[in-house]
From TrEMBL:
Protein family per UniProt: Belongs to the N-CoR nuclear receptor corepressors family.
Coiled coil: 136-167
Record keywords: Coiled coil, DNA-binding, Metal-binding, Nucleus, Zinc, Zinc-finger
GO biological process: regulation of transcription by RNA polymerase II
MF terms (GO), sorted A to Z: DNA binding; zinc ion binding
Gene3D superfamilies: 1.20.5.430, Homeodomain-like
GO cellular component, one term: chromatin
Record-linked InterPro entries: Homeodomain-like_sf (IPR009057), N-CoR_corepressor (IPR051571), N-CoR_GPS2_interact (IPR031557), SANT/Myb (IPR001005), SANT_dom (IPR017884)
Protein name: SANT domain-containing protein
Biased composition (Basic and acidic residues): 29-51
Residue ranges occupied by any SANT domain in the UniProt entry: 262-313
């Protein structure tokens, strides 16, 4: 019966999980065994040195003191290794960088070089300011010329007649556009400046409406000015020469990389069959499915699912399986 099948499947799943747990324990024990074998294979001198160092240190120490002591011990071992490679050097070499001869030499050179450096930076800064001033003035000239050109195009009689004709056509189709335009023109004709509001407003409500409209316009203008980005100046010839070639993530031979990655992740027919069976039992429970596959991790299982989902059509297989479960038993009468 279906109930017995489900029980058997659950028992198989539990057994797979237990097998996986036992295998992981065996791996951990093997790692510990390898570590112990490495420790036993160490030379006897290293084993003798460590307890002597531990005995010389006080028992009650803070974490910082323990770290300092360990660092001192490692530094001493490193110095012992290097002492065989050359003449003996008295340590420390210096307490502060200013104690060294090269530091004092660099300081004297800089005192001679300082005035030339300041003069060079001043000249470069002055040249940059002259260039920026020229670019700003040139931009303003071109901007004014462009605005005059746009104004001349917009004030063209043919263009205005064409715009009036198209506006009339659209306002007939959409009366709300005409109403919005008339309201806007009426508001602009009433309010020339902020000081003449009271003369045009007939009621307090209308005055309040006009003031709110003006405040809204001012806020919108402030917002636009704050959000607008000032474009940077054009780069000079020296700055244009500076380039950065980013080779991060560069693949000189992508096909080789792809083939190598595919070769690392190979699925046997048995593993594919186990994946399909476990997926039908536990859809998209990739952690559990990976626990049933000894040589596959969870990311590899997820990758295999997305690579094979169109070919295998797991949704259709799940649908068929669910239909089998829902199908009622036929009772035959003899």
């Amino acid at each position: 019966s279906q109930k017995e099948k489900d029980e058997i499947i659950a028992q198989i799943t539990n057994l797979d999980q237990e097998i996986h747990q036992v295998e992981s324990k065996i791996k951990n024990l093997q790692k510990k065994q390898d570590q112990l074998e490495k420790e036993t294979a160490k030379p006897q001198e290293e084993k003798r040195e460590s307890p002597e160092l531990n005995q010389s240190e006080p028992k009650h120490q803070s974490i910082a003191q323990i770290i300092y002591a360990e660092n001192r011990r490692k530094a001493e071992e490193a110095h012992k290794m290097l002492s065989k490679m050359g003449p003996k050097i008295d340590l420390p070499l210096y307490h502060q960088p200013s104690d060294t001869a090269i530091y004092q030499e660099n300081k004297q050179k800089f005192a001679v070089f300082k005035n030339r450096l300041i003069l060079h930076l001043k000249k470069r800064h002055q040249a940059r300011r002259i260039r920026e001033k020229y670019l700003t003035e040139r931009y303003d000239q071109l901007m004014q010329a462009w605005l005059k050109k746009i104004e001349r195009i917009e004030n063209n009689a043919k263009r205005k007649a064409k715009e009036a004709k198209s506006r009339e056509f659209y306002e007939k189709l959409f009366p709300e556009i005409k109403k919005a335009r008339e309201d806007r023109e009426r508001f602009q004709s009433r309010v020339g400046t902020r000081g003449s509001i009271a003369g045009y407003a007939r009621t307090d409500a209308e005055l309040e409406q006009i003031v709110d409209g003006l405040n809204e316009q001012e806020e919108e203008e402030k917002k636009m000015r704050s959000f607008s980005v000032i474009p940077p100046m054009m780069l000079d010839s020296h700055q244009r020469k500076m380039k950065f070639i980013n080779n991060n993530g560069l693949l000189e031979d992508p096909m080789f990389e792809y083939k190598e990655s595919q070769a690392l992740i190979k699925w046997t027919e048995t593993e594919k069959q186990i994946f399909k069976e476990k997926y039908l039992q536990h859809p998209k429970n990739f952690v559990l499915i990976a626990s049933c596959l000894q040589k596959k991790s969870v990311p590899e299982v997820i990758q295999f699912y997305y690579q094979s989902k169109k070919k295998e059509n797991y949704k259709q297989l799940l649908r068929k399986q669910n239909m089998k479960k829902r199908r009622p038993f036929k009772v035959s009468y003899t």
